Amino acid sequence: MNNKKRIIAVSFLILAFLLVFLFLYQQKMKSQEPISATAFKLNTVVTITIYDSQDTSLLDDSLALCDHYEEIFSRTKESSELYQLNQGLLPRSEDGFSISSDLEALIQSGLSYSELSQGAFDISVEPVSSLWDFTSGEKVVPPENQIQDALSLVNYKNVKVKNGSLSFQQEGMGLDLGAIAKGFISDKIKEFLVSKGVKSATINLGGNVLCIGSKPDKTPFRIGIQKPFADRNETAAVVNITDKAVISSGIYERYFEKEGKIYHHILNPKTGYPCETSLISVTIIADHGVDGDGLSTACFALGLEKGMELINTLSDVQAVFITDDYELHYSDNFDY
User: Which of 81, 310, 316, 330 has the smallest CB count inside 10 Å?
Assistant: First the structure.
């Protein structure tokens, strides 16, 4: 082979090597890109993002879990287990209504936070919450007499749950699990993804975020705490999160304004009207979504002083409270 042919052959080999290298590099970069899916579920925008897998079926299965749990926990969907419980349509025995293990688990969590907050948060508020509508745009304040009648049915201590059975100690009672259901569902999605080998992902259910591990490069996820009444992209603070939940409750989520007064969806189970405190937002950082959900609502209802006092007794939980002057108040052990 003369020198010219040898040079041409070597050039082709180098070119082939470069093409193979480029292809493999592109495949590697592609495999490092996160996969994500967004859908309207649970009456909110749900986004699942996985950083260490290219298996899109995991996204589909995660979104399907939202539908599955909505069929259990929805207060308004007539086919749901909770709706049928509240309407007295579930099978019953001498011990009460027969309920699924998932519904029992969520109710038990709700009762624990009702007790922890001494009733400031109360999952038996359904007779009152069913009178209010914060999404239709009709801006109707329920009549006082209806609120008072409904309040007589609100008392979490009259809810008895044991071994798959639930009983109400007063006729006409009902449960509203909307304040903690999304946190519970995010925990279940995390449990599913981890069982499939996922070690890096975020589960965002309407702004409530649960992180699985950290980013693939081992750095923490940076999660924004939304500025109340601002666009979802505008943050009041940013926290570095690894394998924890960041859950917020605030008056900006669902509300209407009538005659100069804001009526929001976080109801005071003692008055039947929206909680009146100096707070406009509470964000909890916790190991589990259901705990963040329960605590964020409970602390909002308790107000700044009592809510912060509660958080400071919990060693594994941190919080950011935002007051109506937009000042941020951090729990004692906040280190994000």
Answer: 316
CB 210 within 8 A of CB 260: no
Tokens of 248: 């917020």
Model pLDDT, residue 231: 72
Domain 69-168: which topology?
A: T-fold (1.10.3980)
Q: How far apart are CA 124 and CA 106, in angstroms?
A: 13
Euclidean distance between CA atoms 225 and 222, whole angstroms: 10
What are the residue ranges of CATH 1.10.3980.10 in the chain?
69-168
Which pTM value belongs to this model?
A: 0.88
Residue 167 near residue 96 (C-beta atoms within 8 A): yes
H or E stretch at 13: helix 3-32
The CB-side HSE value for 55 (13 A sphere, CA atoms) comes to: 11
First-last CA distance in the chain: 68
pLDDT 10s digits, 27-54: 444 557 999 999 999 999 999 999 999 9
Residue pLDDT, tens place only, 229-253: 887 678 999 999 999 999 999 998 8
Sheet holding 159-162, edge to edge: 92-93, 96-98, 165-168, 159-162
Residue pair 211/204 in contact (Cβ under 8 Å)? The answer is no
User: How wide is the angle at C-alpha 248 spanned by C-alphas 241 and 143, nearest 5°?
Assistant: 175
User: Can you read off the two tokens belonging to residue 310?
Assistant: 């509660």
- From 3.40.50.620, 3.10.520.10, 3.30.300.350, 3.20.20.100, which CATH number describes the 33-56+198-330 domain? 3.10.520.10
Q: What's the mean pLDDT in 6-26?
A: 57
Measured in whole angstroms, the distance separating CA 227 from the mean position of its chain's CA atoms is 17
